[in-house]
């Protein structure tokens, strides 16, 4: 994710920036393979990141949450520190449910999580699934995932693909 991608997505800090970025980074680095790009984002923002223009990505493997256009949505990237939307707090909150060696790095709609495993792959985890189930690889690496982020210019009023049905109510 280069500066241009960050600008196109309208990335901004969500919540508070951690007061000690170096200490927070030191706490996160042993948890998963931290790519240089993601490290740069963590240092720059120092907290969770949301996107004014929305964010979407095309997963390597379609998931039950993949839209008709082939994209999945991203609500936020977790950040550094001890805020609610930090990587460390998200890991503590979901540690018992997440597959082993998964670390949450972001949130998708509905409370599902984007996680990195010990090998550096990025996965979407369905928060309503049993431990180890409901997992789909969406990118081979964190850099691949970040490079694939695009503005989500979906049309909320669009009714394409909605099945029309007659109502059973008779007024």
Descriptive overview:
The chain has 171 residues and is of the alpha+beta class. The chain has a single domain, classed as 3-Layer(aba) Sandwich (SMI1/KNR4-like), CATH 3.40.1580.10. The protein contains five helices and seven strands, in the order H-E-H-H-E-E-H-E-E-E-E-H. A seven-stranded antiparallel β-sheet has the order 1-2-3-4-5-6-7. The longest helix is centred in the N-terminal third of the chain and has 10 residues, at 36-45. It is globular.
Write a concise synopsis of the structure shown.
This protein is an alpha+beta fold and 171 residues long.
Residues in β-strands, percent? 15-25%
Number of helices: 5
Report the top-level CATH class.
Answer: Alpha Beta
Please tell me what the overall shape is: globular
The main pleated sheet reads as:
7 strands, antiparallel
The figure for the number of domains is 1
State the order of secondary-structure elements, H for helix, E for strand. Answer: HEHHEEHEEEEH
Q: Going across the biggest sheet, name each strand in turn.
A: 1-2-3-4-5-6-7
Given as residue ranges, the uncertain stretches (5+ residues, pLDDT < 50) are 156-171
Helix content: 10-25%
Named at the architecture level, the CATH assignment is: 3-Layer(aba) Sandwich
Structural class: alpha+beta
Tell me the CATH superfamily: SMI1/KNR4-like
Q: From the alpha carbons, calculate the radius of gyration and give it in angstroms.
A: 17 Å
Mean pLDDT: 86
């Amino acid at each position: 994710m280069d500066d241009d991608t960050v600008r196109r997505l309208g990335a901004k800090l969500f919540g508070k920036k951690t007061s000690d970025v170096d200490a927070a980074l030191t706490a996160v680095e042993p948890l998963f393979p931290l790519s240089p790009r993601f490290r740069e984002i963590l240092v720059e923002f120092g907290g969770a990141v949301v996107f004014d223009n929305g964010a979407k990505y095309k997963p390597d493997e379609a998931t039950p949450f993949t839209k008709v256009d082939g994209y999945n949505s991203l609500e936020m990237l977790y950040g550094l520190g001890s805020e609610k939307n930090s990587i460390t707090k998200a890991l503590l909150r979901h540690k018992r449910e997440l597959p082993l060696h998964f670390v949450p790095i972001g949130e998708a709609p509905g409370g599902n999580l984007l996680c990195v495993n010990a090998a550096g792959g990025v996965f979407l985890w369905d928060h309503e699934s049993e431990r180890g189930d409901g997992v789909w690889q969406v990118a081979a690496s964190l850099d691949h995932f970040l490079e694939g982020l695009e503005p989500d210019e979906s049309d909320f009023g669009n009714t394409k693909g909605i099945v029309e049905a007659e109502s059973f109510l008779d007024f």
